[in-house]
Design a protein that fits this description.
The protein is of the alpha+beta class and 270 residues long. It has two domains: 78 residues, Orthogonal Bundle (Arc Repressor Mutant, subunit A), CATH 1.10.10.10; 184 residues, GAF domain (Beta-Lactamase), CATH 3.30.450. It contains ten helices and eight strands. The strands form two sheets. The chain has a six-stranded antiparallel β-sheet with strand order 5-4-3-8-7-6. Strands 1-2 form a two-stranded antiparallel sheet.
Length: 270
């Protein structure tokens, strides 16, 4: 009988630890969406937790260096520790060293912003960016996530995912509307993605950000599985769709070269 009680207590303790970890990660995500920081009450509201639970979790995260408090203690911010962890991953695969020359060449030849993203679960994450020299620029930044169904890079990935995974992503979750151009009908999106597979590239005409256009090429691992995408993004009043599409040969060639140079590194993202 005592062994059963001991086993039950151990299981309950493990469950509490897993729940605490999940809640702690939730707090990191809440603060990641608030670059100016949040108060204890605001964090608790966003995470749907009590103030007391939120305070305990925040204290643990502060002690471990993942969160900082401002001088008067009223606001919480993410520290640079997460950036250090992600930077270690990127440096380890020499991603920046290999990719940046390609992005810079495209940015210089087009005068627009160039992105490199990698697939992470159900979203694309910006891992490299070369900014346009023009005064009005993209709000994207390294570490930011992009939805798959309405961005150039996202659709370039989504179109080439295995059909079962693609169908699950489209049919089992809401296709959020960001602008009037966002495709939110699953059948329409499936048809659109089939066209992308035929031509090899995707285009975003104000589907995620109303005044942004994007042309993107998928990137693949050695086994042919899509792992990311490379794109040219421009403000719509500056670049029409015809001009954007004229850059496809150059984007395609740089994506092909980058794919070849990073083929071994892409294995870890499968």
């Amino acid at each position: 009988m005592s062994r059963r009680i001991e086993s039950s207590n151990l299981q309950a303790n493990n469950t509490r630890k897993v729940r605490a970890l999940s809640r702690g990660l939730c707090l990191l995500e809440v603060l990641a969406a608030a670059p100016n920081g949040l108060s204890l009450s605001e964090i608790a509201d966003e995470a749907n937790l009590s103030k007391s639970s939120t305070h305990r979790l925040l204290q643990t995260l502060v002690m471990n260096g993942y969160i900082l408090r401002d001088s008067n203690g009223s606001q919480y911010h993410l520290s640079f520790k997460l950036l250090e962890l992600s930077s270690s991953l990127i440096q380890d695969i020499n991603l920046s060293m290999v990719a940046r020359p390609h992005l810079e060449h495209l940015a210089q030849s087009t005068g627009e912003t160039v992105h490199l993203v990698l697939l992470d679960h159900n979203t694309a994450v910006y891992v490299e960016k070369v900014e346009s020299p023009n005064p009005i620029r993209m709000y994207s930044h390294i570490g930011m996530r992009a939805p798959l169904h309405c961005t150039g890079v996202g659709k370039a990935i989504l179109a080439f995912l295995p059909s079962e995974r693609r169908d699950a992503l489209i049919n089992n979750q809401e296709l959020q509307r960001y602008t009037k151009n966002t495709i939110t009908n699953p059948e329409e999106l499936h048809t659109h993605l089939a066209e992308i597979r035929k031509c090899g590239y995707s285009m975003d005409d104000g589907e995620h950000e109303e005044h942004v256009r994007c042309l993107a090429a998928p990137l693949f691992a050695r086994n042919g599985q899509v792992v990311g995408a490379m794109s040219i993004a421009a403000i719509s009043y500056r670049v029409d769709m015809t001009t954007l599409l004229s850059w496809w040969p150059s984007l395609s060639e740089h994506a092909r070269q980058l794919n070849s140079e990073l083929i071994h590194y892409f294995e870890r993202f499968i």
